[in-house]
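Practice problem 4.
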């Protein structure tokens, strides 16, 4: 990934960090619970696990630490490391660690493509809605694979192709109408079973299990949708609109959204895949 693209991603998530735990983004804690439940089933968590043999988990693209914190609280004798490009997101994660007085978790600002941990350092690695930002996903997966102990698992989440519809399509159509070029949407790179199979097979994982989780909610007003735009990745696109046109864009877009809500077409899909890749 180019330095310019990394800086853009870092800036976007620094900008939204303070609102990333907003209740409108409830699909993030839902996904975190699903990932941690898999972790709890796949690694030893009984009382025979001693403090001298801690379960080590790496959470990459940790954001505000939703997965990492849930793992730290619910997996006995676990040692959790969360990494992210965004210092703003990590500051929010650390605030939650301090609030809950957790001793088995730490966060570091690191680049997923430049990790320096020794080989076979971790029992499991998680990555929630982050892998699709990496240009060379296969190389990233191969690198993460070297960090897993024998029998270790890499667990990732990614959105389905219909995620955020029909709201996303309305946003992007209005975006184009305001003279903006819609960039390739990162999450669509891992939004099907075939895409997931291909990238994990190319990374030479031994076993791959892909599960689709159906999820969604009703958007009751245009302001609810704007909470999602403002506190997540769409904010980065919105900020590309010239300042003198941003309010007009918002007004036009939210009028369309409110029409959906008023006509009982308020369902928003937030379904996702959880992929579990295991090495021998």
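Answer key:
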């Amino acid at each position: 990934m180019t330095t310019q693209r990394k800086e853009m991603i870092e800036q976007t998530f620094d900008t939204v960090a303070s609102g990333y735990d907003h209740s409108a983004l409830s699909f993030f804690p839902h996904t975190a619970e699903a990932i941690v439940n898999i972790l709890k089933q796949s690694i030893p968590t009984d009382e025979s696990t001693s403090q001298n043999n801690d379960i080590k988990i790496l959470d990459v693209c940790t954001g505000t630490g939703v997965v990492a914190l849930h793992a730290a609280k619910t997996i006995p004798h676990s040692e959790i490391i969360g990494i992210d490009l965004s210092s703003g997101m990590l500051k929010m994660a650390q605030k939650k660690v301090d609030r809950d007085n957790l001793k088995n978790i730490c966060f570091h600002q690191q680049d997923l493509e430049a990790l320096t941990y020794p080989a076979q350092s971790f029992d499991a690695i998680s990555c929630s809605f982050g892998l699709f930002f990496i240009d060379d996903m296969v190389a990233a997966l191969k690198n993460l694979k070297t960090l897993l102990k024998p029998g270790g698992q890499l667990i990732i989440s990614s959105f389905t192709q219909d995620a955020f519809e029909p709201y996303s399509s309305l946003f992007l159509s209005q975006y184009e109408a305001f003279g903006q070029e819609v960039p390739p949407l990162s999450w669509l790179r891992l939004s099907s079973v075939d895409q997931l199979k291909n990238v994990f097979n190319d990374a030479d994982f031994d076993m791959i299990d892909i599960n689709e989780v159906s999820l969604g909610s009703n958007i009751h007003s245009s302001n609810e949708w704007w909470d999602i735009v403002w506190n997540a990745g769409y904010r980065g696109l919105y900020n590309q609109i010239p300042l003198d046109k941003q309010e007009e864009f918002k007004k036009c877009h939210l009028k369309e959204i409110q029409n959906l809500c008023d006509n009982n077409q308020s369902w928003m899909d937030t379904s996702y895949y959880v992929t579990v890749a295991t090495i021998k």
